[in-house]
Amino acid sequence: MTAIEILTEKFNTGEFCYKKPSEICRLLGAGGKGERESIVRMLKNLEAEGCIVRDDRGRYVLPEKLGLVRGTIQGNERGFAFLLRDGQSDLFIPHKSLRGAMHGDTVFARIVGGERGDEAAVYSILKRGMVQLTGTYYRDRRCGMVEADERKFCDPVRIVGGLRAYSGEKVLVKIVAYPEGKDPEGEILEVLGQSGDLNTEEEAIIRTQNLAEEFPQKALSEARKVSAEPVTAEGRTDFRGDLVITIDGEDSRDFDDAVHVERDGEDFLLSVHIADVTHYVRRGGALDKEAFARGTSVYFPDRVLPMLPEELSNGICSLNEGEDRCTLSCIMRVDGKGNVKDSRIVNGLICSKNRMTYTKIAAILDGDERMCSEYAHLVPMCEDMRALAEILINKRNARGSIDLDVKEAQITCKDGKIDVCEYKRTMAHRIIEEFMILANETVAEFVTAYELPFIYRVHEKPSEEKAQSFKTYLQELGIRAKFHPDNVRPGEYGKILESLKDSELFRVVNRVMLRSMSKARYSAENCGHFGLASRCYCHFTSPIRRYPDLLVHRIVKLILDGQAGEAEQGYKNFVNIASNNCSASERRADEAERAVDELYKTWYMRSHLGEEFEGVVSGVTAFGIFVELPNTVEGLVRIENLPQDDYTFVEERYLLKGSRNSYKIGDKCAVRVAACNIGTRRVEFTLSEKD
Questions:
Q1: Predicted pLDDT of residue 667
Q2: Domain 3-63 belongs to what topology?
Q3: pTM
Q4: For residue 559, what is the enclosing H or E element?
Q5: DSSP 123-163
Q6: pLDDT per residue over 442-458, tens digit each?
Q7: Which residue of 186, 246, 291, 638 has the fewest CB atoms within a 10 Å radius of its CB?
């Protein structure tokens, strides 16, 4: 056993618990100064990792001996915070109990009770979460300060060095010290521009999430080299004679997937062809390292931060119309009930016959004469695609898949003009979604049969606490909920939505149901996918923009090449590392995309100040209500701007209740645009006089 393992074991047995460093050195027989210093260093390392802590007398002990819980601080702009714990309910931490902990910090805390038994106090800080941040520079009487853009980081940063800035400028700050009882100290690394400017605010979000904008020279050189390689049919199944098409959005430039459907008696032959990115991005190369670091492409209204350089993402890997392209192809025979009777995965070669859009395919399916005439050669296949998609939708619904109706924004920027509207999903979108889901399941089942290391896309069932809260909410609405909160099945959630499909309650319940569910993530363990009611699922269909898909391709190709043993050895440890990294990259990208969307929505609504809109209550808090407009813009009506009343926030019912007025999720109301704060990316409404 190593020295660290010996120390760990002795703490686990209790032998070293409640012992000071000097006592531990004595018990280990450490005589010399060097030995004692080595033991003290190891103890500090164990403390830094959260394996042990010190009590108030300076003695080392296991955290659980002191009743401590570990979690991450989620700050609030009003000073208090929550402790987020994996798989357990959040704990409330008043400002006085933070003990210098800030948003993003990993801490140990002790549960201290509170009215509902959910209050905690920070015991010790394990790791600082935010080492860099963006904010607005200003001068107070003594020194320069920066107010962070991240509203959950509520302490200003005192500037002690770095670049010079002027009041009102947006800056990037590195935090260099956390003096006890004082504001954190930082140095200015970069001046981004004037606060309130659209481009400056967007750059600040990119810096906050530490997103890479430029590629290293080595990666660019490698991209130029591999993109010049000739595309050949050697070692590949040739699909260039098939009617293969891509279907994407109007503005898409990177095409990961292409499809072909034909009937064969009572069956359908579905071919899903995915860009063979691994043919060009070799493991361990400069491109691979950069793709792993980025984890995913990030999409903003005015730009894309791609996972791979343009030579690959928009060039040699993209399944462009009329160009030969290497693919990893999943060919499936599907019967009339949606069952995959047979499948094969092969290295393929395609030539896309048409670059189609969702709008064009939807028009063909709707019988648009001009489109049907222009694409007469596609009309029969489009009808077959619709027929197959409907079969697959019915099969998924029957097994309990949850079809959440989530509104998405479509934000466009043309000639300096921003427009925001709801993104309309059509049958064309459903077709591609169903085909990709089926391919993802088929590939996951294929690899799982070999019992090899793999990266799954998993979605755990809701926690018992959240499921119970959702059940209580449904019962308050008079909706029968038969599921058991400790073991919810996806079909039970699906039936609730199905029963409300033609009811005004559908959108309300849909929204609350979504909040009760966990977030999907990547995992080396197959935990199934609750939302899709799938026992085995992965991401296979977007390797140009997602690293997990690229990794899935590598493992599949090793199997196809008869090198399953190499996959076992080469990826046994890496899939765990990759799962965590890809989940973190996805969260970072989602937060950045959401923040930029909020920025653009706020900028757009500036031109509608004073105007009135019909909306729906989308959120209820103790400090007001959030109202969502038909174009997906959401704004806050502060409680002081509601009709005067004695309001009580009933959290479990998503209700703000007064003696004369009440507001709950789903209520319709008319609002007036009162303010648009670009810095906080927040739109504020007041209720219109007619409401």
A1: 92
A2: Arc Repressor Mutant, subunit A (1.10.10)
A3: 0.90
A4: helix 547-560
A5: EEEEE-S-SEEEEEEEE-SSSEEEEESSTT--S-EEEEEES
A6: 999 999 999 999 999 99
A7: 638
